[in-house]
Amino acid sequence: MQEHWQEVMGIAQGEVRAFEFRNWFKPLKPVHWHNGTVTLQVRDAEFQEWFIEHFEPVLLRSLEEVLQKPMMVEYKIVDRNLFETVSPAAPAPPAATELTREYIFDNFVVGPSNHMAFAAGKAVAERSGKAYNPLFIYGGTGLGKTHLLHSIGHYSHQRNPRLRVLYITAETYFHDMTTSIRCKSMEQFRVKYRDACDVLLVDDIQFLAGKPRTQEEFFHTFNALHAAGKQIAFTSDRFPQELPELEDRLRSRFEWGLIAEIAAPQLETRVAILKAKAQRMGMALGDDVALTIAKQVKDNIRELESCLKTLHLVSATTGEPVTVAMAQENLKSYFRSRIRRVSVEQILRQVGHGYGVTDVEIKSRSRKKNIAQPRHVAMYLARRLTVHSFPELGERFGGRDHSSVMAATRKIDKQRRIDATLQQTLDDFEQKLRR
Ligand code: ADP
Ligand code: MG
Fold first, then answer.
1. Which CATH number applies to 267-336: 1.10.8.60, 3.30.450.20, 1.10.150.20, 3.10.310.10?
2. Which atom of ligand 1 is nearest to the CA of 149?
């Protein structure tokens, strides 16, 4: 059976594209072979449906060619995370999260804004535990952090199917832990996160901020995995140093490996993403329409996708082709609700004006309080209202190191919580800038 199966796979491989073979044929597992029927184990009903619709004919042809007679195929669904080979002794994970099938490296459009994170993710998947450990990916909402993290999971497993990949959100980890404490099953919890896992992917780690008990446990999880040479990767919407209420010892762990930022994509990348998504949706999208959308929707890729879906739906229901005019008509809400992009120069001018200093003074080296405070406020606002990274902001604030921007941002963030006047000033600046 194993021999036949290898042969069948060999033929199928020649019939479909490489990534299709990898995603759809590789995961099939023949578990039973009887009287002209092959039973295949598959991940879930969704997988099965898609496979039957798109690839079953190829499989049937390949089977027939090898066995010299028509064969039948049956499917058996495994009701647990495919990427976790749980040993019989280990408890079944209570909240195993599936890796999203579409979130693979092949579907990730690379541009200057994300190529560092992409390359680091790939390196980590290729040399699990040996390239950068941990890998810490940070960036704003909807910029592809989760997509990259799942890709690492898929690719790690593909490179080495023996690796048990565990993907969770920090929130799941938190709930899992509180449940385990309540049910007195911490032993099992530890087996799951320390022993029964070779690659741990934790999404949205910022969720742990302000949860000392969970941080403490996570600190031990981290140490156990790291000491065993197991790969760990995180995502966060903030830089480790920007996470308030995070224990220093945990923060310092996050900085052991590599920190990679995902920034907002440039116009060219946004266009490329739109075209790639449209192609996968089987939708005709002209360059002019792609450009129209990309020019309006700038700092959230999820929104770019929503625009496409809207157009796709409108076009499917009305039969109208997707044109620039049609896009403008139907995407009004996306285009109008876009917050006006604020530049660092505008912030410098506005804040300078408010405090009665010049932008040159703000950018200067002066440490006088009447200049340092507006500088810190401007840095804080720039971090909030623009999509620039810390190093970029340092550059724009007179060629400073990223750490000074970071410190200023943190300082103002702390102050504003206890100082209502400052909060009011910040709100006023923000309102004026956004107008
Ligand atoms: P985040 O976790 O940073 O909030 P996601 O990973 O959920 O963002 O990404 C939002 C959506 O945008 C997803 O559907 C994802 O596939 C898509 N996306 C993000 N970056 C890219 C990219 N570089 N190429 C293709 N799709 C992308
Ligand atoms: Mg995410």
1. 1.10.8.60
2. 6
